[in-house]
Amino acid sequence: DISEEVTRRTIERTLDQFKITPENIREGVLYFNKQMRDGLRNKSESHDYMPMIPSFITHIPDGSETGLSLAGDLGGTNFRICSVELNGDHTFNLEQYKTKVEKAFMVGTSDELFGHLARQIKYFLSLHHSDYLKSNTEKIKMSFTFSFPLDQTSLNTGTLIRWTKGFNIEDAVGKDIAELFQKAIDSLNLPVRIVAITNDTVGTLLANAYSSVSKKKTVLGAIFGTGTNGAYAEKLDNIAKLDSKTVELLKSRGIDDMIINTEWGSFDNCLKFLPTTIYDEIVDSETSNPGVHVFEKRISGMFLGEIVRLMMLDLHKRKLILQNYEQIEATLRSVPSSSNLLNLTNLPRRPNSKKLSHRILTEWNFTTENLSKIQIDDTKNLKVTELVIQESLHLATTFEDRIIIKEVTTAVTTRAALLSSIAIAAVVLKTGRLGVTLDEKGVLVDTHLKDDVVEVAVDGSVVEFYPGFQENIYRGLRYSQLGEDFAKKIDITITKDGSGVGAALCAGSYLE
Ligand code: ADP
């Protein structure tokens, strides 16, 4: 059948745009290496290198740490507080409390916001650590995870550059947020001192370094969830953009390394390497930050479902899939709604409509979680895929549609995992811990360090739950300059509690 053959060839051409070859991976690693090195030298923002932000965290735990500390986390909608009692044997006791931040606090004054957060801490202490509230002699150290753009100048000073995610408190912009928060804490006479400002990637690295009993070095903390990012320890001598006084002071205290928050979501913002399809361009144009975070937009949970939605729409317009959706939908409607597999009562009534359901036409309406279900569908008729498309998009599909939708899903997410492996391979090589590194020119050299196996601590629903994501990361690692032998020596370990235990561990970098 000629038309079937033409369809097949057109689909193949569309999917081919998502192919990543071993050569692509090695080229990507070289470029990642260059962008990391340039980012470590340059302070100003640029599309030509990664941000590579010094975290001022210099103590990487080994599991022997002890004591009580607090972690506060203001991410977007919630403020989370936890206390962590480290037992010194890789274990800990954790108390947690989460509260929604009302809109009024997001757009009022800094006194109102931080006053509110301080009152939440007081409440938390009264629940779990009332003895501290009474004694008021000893202060508990607190790390503050603050997920907004900061110009951080020491472990516990950071000037707010701008608000994002619906926050808008003008008087806080340009001020040190730790100072604002500490003032609010002090005015309630709480026994709490903010000693560190940090972020979730750094927390993931520290949490794994503390908890791991394997004696393997944790060389990288990485997030693959809504977004993606990574943090690793870098030699102070390599962080040229740190001011020399800070470096001297740290060295005089016997410190040689500092954790760098790479902000690798911004890898290749100048698009010299990354494969770009028309779908990537549309996704980028739909975001609030077009032209930046372009690596993240090809990798993380917020975007993968959207790429697939746009591809389904395009293939429909080109008359390659979803051509019979109405007819089939009508048949489906006649099925009694008592069938709990096909809940048809939710289907929109669109008699004589020639338009697709509004759901598939709506931006961001198709999640990466849906892709997971399609990916794992091994039923004969791709029944699971049928239900996913029906429930999430209110569309009926033919078996042929479903085969293509599954292929599209696989193409988009395999590319995501292989691109992720570029970041992991490049950072592991940069640390040199496996005995090899890439020098300034991208030449592979021996570092004489010989850790047998290293751990890469990861967190986020995509890396944790997406079927085959980790396998594809490993495949990419083998394609990279690490090759088969070194790729084998990387243990990808799911690590929870980055923003709790990990953040609390940041207090360990505070020097009196
Ligand atoms: P966050 O990164 O916001 O802390 P998560 O790590 O849970 O939270 O990541 C959320 C992202 O992961 C969302 O984009 C969501 O669509 C996606 N996601 C949730 N569940 C799954 C799953 N089972 N498989 C793949 N992606 C998932």
TrEMBL record:
Q: What broad taxonomic lineage does this protein's source fall under?
A: Eukaryota, Fungi, Dikarya, Ascomycota, Saccharomycotina
Query: Domain Hexokinase N-terminal: where?
Result: 11-210
Source organism of this protein record: Saccharomycopsis crataegensis
PROSITE patterns in UniProt: HEXOKINASE_2
**UniProt cross-references to SUPFAM superfamilies, sorted A to Z:** Actin-like ATPase domain
Gene Ontology BP term (one): glucose metabolic process
EC number(s) stated in the UniProt entry for this protein: 2.7.1.-
Q: Which UniProt keywords apply?
A: ATP-binding, Glycolysis, Kinase, Nucleotide-binding, Transferase
Tell me the protein's name: Phosphotransferase
State the top-level EC class: transferase
